[in-house]
């Protein structure tokens, strides 16, 4: 069970920015292919986001999975709401749903030209 201190810490991280990505590595240096894909999608959309490196803290790495009831990392949160992992984010990006979600939540997007 997720302890209260860790839950509060995750709550604070999720609330700290409009778009938060719990990932392996950093946005500049992703340390897993799935995290790299989500970074690439967000970068393509021109969305500012905060990356939280779960490799820095094993309790956070396990705790975020329990927090969201989602078994894998990366995990994307927009305006405090869990969106999904790599496959969901990639699919939402390809269908335009991710851009719609960002727009509907008031998150600024500035898509770059070309394909992600």
UniProtKB/TrEMBL annotation:
Signal peptide: none annotated. InterPro entries: Glutaredoxin, GRX_PICOT-like, Monothiol_GRX, Monothiol_GRX-rel, Thioredoxin-like_sf. One of its GO terms (molecular function) is disulfide oxidoreductase activity. Keywords: 2Fe-2S, Iron, Iron-sulfur, Metal-binding, Redox-active center. [2Fe-2S] cluster binds at residue 32. SUPFAM superfamilies: Thioredoxin-like. The keyword Iron applies. Residues 19-83 form the Glutaredoxin domain. Pfam families: Glutaredoxin. Belongs to the glutaredoxin family. Monothiol subfamily. This is Glutaredoxin. It comes from Thalassobaculum litoreum DSM 18839.
